[in-house]
Amino acid sequence: MKDLEKMYAISGRINIKKGDILAGKYRYVKKLGMGGMGAVCLVSDIKTQEMLAMKYCLSEDHMDRFEREVLAWLQLGQHPNIVSAIYFDRINNKPTLFIEYVKGPTLKDVIKQSQTDREELYLEKVLDYAIQICRGMDHLHEKGIIHRDLNPKNIIIQEDDGFGIVKITDLGLSKLKVLPRKSKSTKMSGRHLAAKVELTETNQVLGTPQYMSPQQYTSSKEVNESTDIYAFGLILYEMISCGKFPFEANSTTGWLHAHLYRPPRHIKKQAAVKISLFNHKTRNELYELVMSCLAKTNRERPANFAAIEKQLESIYEQLCKKSYRRSKISASSLSKWEEENNKAVSLLKIGNEHAKAARDILNNIHKENPEFLYAHLNLLLLQLKTKSFTLEEFWLETNSLLQQTSDTSKVIEVMVGGALEKRAYMQKSLQILQQIQDIESFPNLARKKAKWLYLKGEFQQALKILEMLCEKDHATVEDFYDRVGAMIHCEILNDHCQIVPKADKFSLVIPQDLRQKSWDILRVGEKKCGVNDALERAKDIIAGGEVPKTPFWHEYGQLQGHKKPIKKIIITPNGLNVVSIGEDKFVKVWDVKHKKLICEFKIEHEITCLTTNLTQKQIALGLQSGDILLYNLQTKCLQKKVSAHKHPIVGLVFCNNESRLVSGDTNGEIKQWNLKELLKKKKIWQLKGEKPEKKYTVQTQLSTLGVNLSGSRIIAGGNDGSIYFVPQEGSAVKIDAHTSHIEKILISANERVAVSMCKLPPHNLILWDLRNNGKMHFSLENITSIAITGDAKYILVSTEEGFIDIWNTMKKIKLQRIEAYSNSISDIAVTADAKMAVSGAKNGAITLWANNYVWPIQLEQSYLKSSGI
């Protein structure tokens, strides 16, 4: 099964054999068939033991047509004479349709058998099959779908107590009409689905030549329901004649000529001996019906399959001397709600363009049956994914549902999974998961717990869970990928692995024994579950190749915070410490790795700004009084108090290898201090004040200050929204920039870009190209703070609603939005290497954010679907 091997293999060929696990969800049984566009194999659902036919697309070139086939199948719903679609999914990123498995021969097989056994197809059976085909095709047309490839190979005869149940299948060449006929069924029919016009170009021939209508050969624009009626006429003729055909040809060109120009041979010369009806010279109703179906033009054929069915039932009653009776009710074990829910989930899997149709279906289910849990959870999840709900609103709704239902595992799965997808609410999620005693019995919950522990940096605990999951039949390709990632991170923490970062890429230096172990785990994973793009990336990393840095920001943990709103927050360049100031007047220093408080002290004065000196392990605080306080983090004591300014300090930055300190006040005075000289003097506080090393004056009221690492460039922000570039010598250069007073100015560590912000749009965020003297404006709503990475490629923007947006400055696009808190974020900071960030909120909360570009993991929460036939 080379086609299946290509779909699920990542290197070389894997021998797919009976019993092998595909994607951690399905057990392979056997191949059922293969065509030019797709293949079908029989699988069993590991969890439910249901037998399913799995149809997948073989070629990227046919992906659009496969999507159209899926839409057509989903639109049909369930009908006793059509093979039902159960759901659409992406297995290892490959589009796959799961359909009802029908055991039985095709009508082609039955017709072939009748050539040697005339009892195989006698009149009553022929009429029974024909009526069932009409019923299935009428349903197809009622839903606005034209089959375009109706032939005996695409009709399966399912065994039952009678002649068998006809099942029409293979909608690969079907055509979705723009306006389906009005459905006679419930209002939750497939009419919601977004119909697509045909993909074929005019005069492009599609179908099985032997069964194609003249219109399929001449013009696709003329192909309508009548095309299927023509094919039905050929099938009915073939059944009556036990395999003989009204035309003879041996090539596509020959069939074209026959269908367009030759009259069909008289059926009485072809009919089976047992069908004595055709032995008479006179014409009869069945003969007339067959011939009318085979008319060359659309208008000469019967109007629709409903009319043909009615006529056939009349013929059946006349010839068989009894009324035709067969139930029209589908025998599927899926309820109406399960079917509709699966339809909605499948639409969402196909693409975002179908989100509205899916939402309508889920809303209707919830309205008519509020107790149906899957649809309710899927609706909440859809609202979260489409940003109709904030994470807080989603959490409240699902938590409320958790109190009302007995199926708590599914609610927790969606609740925690939704938070995981948004990469926030770590503590709340882990608290719920920790309460589950036998989590091994709930693999999806165990998987989510492992992912949260992974994001939290507790790789050893995550690894234990992932090792357990990989041993199970229900293991997924993600489990093996995450397991290797957790193992690699454990070794990085133990200094057995080394990250080698570059500008846009990185590589890993991995010991040979760890590399071999990683390879072995991934090989088991690909053999057991298949592959996805992440495994390909994992191979490159393990091989030591250079891999692009893919931003992967997520919550890393929370700190105890303050009792009142956070005023200012910073993170040291190495990402090891965070310093926060709250309106409670406490200054707190935190250990990031262990997420604990190192020290705190209360300052009775009003603090306006702060900065850190990693070399000297100091923090400097600027006060409303104009003083500067220097604290030693090792001794946790005040080291120096400098009477620096006569006006409130608005900016404070260590620079020049942290040997200098630059401060600025509201009156426009900017001073540079020699830190060594300041600390020489034994007295903590000099009453006369200290003399700065340098002094600059800007003729305006300042609101903030930005200084580069070398101290050679100073940019000041004014209350009037102007930007002032302050040179080492001479007067400051004023540039009109913002419409209100500037809140923050930052200069990237590579000194190529500066960013300034004010709170009011328009142009409340400006990027300044310091090398080329250019600028770029952004107009963003409700922003509260900004941070910039050292290479100036990314800007983090916080908002009053509690969001953090990560922007790519090169591509000018928003890469990611993280929901941090339900209330406003007051300040945000990021390390120069873009590995760690911290945010402080107005409720006093402090959250750590990590960027794990080394081994990002899959966090998408899947919608819930029902299985079963």
How would you characterize the overall build of this protein?
This protein has 869 residues and is α+β, with helices and mostly antiparallel strands. The protein folds into 4 domains: 2-100, Phosphorylase Kinase, domain 1, CATH 3.30.200; 107-175 and 191-320, Transferase(Phosphotransferase) domain 1 (Transferase(Phosphotransferase), domain 1), CATH 1.10.510.10; 360-548, Alpha Horseshoe (Serine Threonine Protein Phosphatase 5, Tetratricopeptide repeat), CATH 1.25.40; 553-851, YVTN repeat-like/Quinoprotein amine dehydrogenase (Methylamine Dehydrogenase, Chain H, 7 Propeller), CATH 2.130.10. 30% of the residues lie in helices and 26% in strands. The protein contains 21 helices and 41 strands. Strands 1-2-3-4-6-5 form a 6-stranded antiparallel sheet, with helices on both faces. Strands 14-41-40-39 form a 4-stranded antiparallel sheet, with no helix packed on it. Strand 36 (794-799) and strand 37 form a beta hairpin. Helix 2 runs antiparallel to helix 10 (336-350), helix 10 (336-350) runs antiparallel to helix 11 (355-368) and helix 18 (477-493) packs antiparallel against helix 19 (512-529). The longest helix is centred in the N-terminal third of the chain and has 20 residues, at 123-142. It is elongated, with a radius of gyration of 36 Å. WD repeats lie at residues 559-600, 642-676, 818-849. This is Serine/threonine protein kinase.
**Strand order, sheet with most strands:** 1-2-3-4-6-5
Q: What's the name of the CATH homologous superfamily of the largest domain?
A: YVTN repeat-like/Quinoprotein amine dehydrogenase
At CATH's second level, what is the architecture of the largest domain? 7 Propeller
β-strand amount: 25-35%
Mean pLDDT metric: 87
